[in-house]
Write a structure and sequence with these properties.
transmembrane helix, mainly alpha, Growth Hormone, Chain: A, MFS_trans_sf
Length: about 290
């Protein structure tokens, strides 16, 4: 009993030194909110929508090339642009999450994702010249590519801020796996809807409507970066190193560098095969301009 009182007294002393308040109970008030599941749902839907926008044209490369009157190589760039844009913007996204927080990052990502989907629809349906069509569609893909890092880098931050420790792995799993789910849906929806090149504008509608819905949910439903009361002690004290210092620490971490090379190589191979899978399996000939 005496030992327990000593521990409490020591903890109160530490909290008094840190917070200027010896009331330990007031400092250890944690609460979980049902709203955390809504925030997680929005992130899952946004991640899924962005993945479908990334891979829209790959499963119907031949039809897309015929409709836009470009080569298959140009169609491949509609997917590859996501990888090109993600590399430099990943540093900005990391800074934005640490500096501005979860809410502006998700809302910006949702608007960029929606604008990208809208531009693709307008480019495919409202422009007559093949050159104009492709440029507007590519611009829409670039907006989606800019949104991608803002979305796929967010799951761990959301899980840490909104969920208690025993639910973080589950929340992170749902948010992260929604991206492969979007890839699966794109491989199912695109061939089912765009059986001919004339149906490409209809295909754009299938991906534009969900992007609008998710953008509305994110803008209207996410009110704060984190809950009013932290869900756990680790969430209350969670933080990260300053951006530049954190980058330097990572570059000196051998275990991280090995993981970076191995995991990055695997993702690169997966991305390559996902983008070119239809052309590899069917042996589609090049479609000239």
């Amino acid at each position: 009993m005496g030992n327990g009182q000593e521990v409490i007294a020591t903890a109160q002393t530490v909290y008094a030194a840190v917070y200027g308040d010896s009331d330990l109970g007031s400092q250890l008030s944690f609460k979980v909110y049902k709203r955390r599941w809504f925030v997680l749902l929005v992130l899952c839907l946004l991640n899924c929508s962005n993945a479908t926008i990334w891979l829209t044209f790959a499963p119907v490369a031949n039809q897309s090339a015929q409709y836009l009157q470009v080569s298959l190589e140009d169609i491949n760039w509609l997917s590859v642009v996501f990888m090109v844009v993600a590399i430099p913007l990943s540093f900005f996204t990391t800074w934005m999450l640490d500096t501005l927080g979860l809410r502006p990052t998700l809302i910006l990502g949702s608007w960029l994702n929606m604008l990208g989907a809208l531009l693709r629809f307008l480019g495919a349906s409202q422009f007559d010249g093949s050159h104009q069509k492709f440029l507007v569609v590519m611009l829409g893909q670039m907006f989606g590519a800019i949104a991608q890092p803002l979305i796929i880098f967010t799951p761990t931050k959301l899980a840490a801020l909104w969920f208690p420790e025993d639910q973080r792995a589950t929340a992170n799993m749902f948010a992260s796996m929604s991206n492969p789910l979007g890839i699966l849906l794109a491989n199912l929806i695109s061939p089912a809807v765009a059986k001919t090149s004339a149906q490409i504008p209809t295909l754009m509608v299938w991906y534009t409507v969900p992007a609008f819905v998710v953008c509305f949910l994110a803008s209207a439903g996410i009110w704060s970066n984190k809950p009013p009361t932290p869900p756990s002690a680790s969430a209350e004290t969670s933080g990260s190193e300053p951006f530049i210092k954190g980058i330097k620490l990572l570059l000196r971490n051998k275990a991280y560098l090995i993981l970076l090379v191995c995991f990055g190589s695997g993702i690169a191979v997966f991305t390559c095969f996902t983008t070119l899978l239809e052309q590899i399996l069917l042996g589609i000939p090049s479609v000239g301009r």
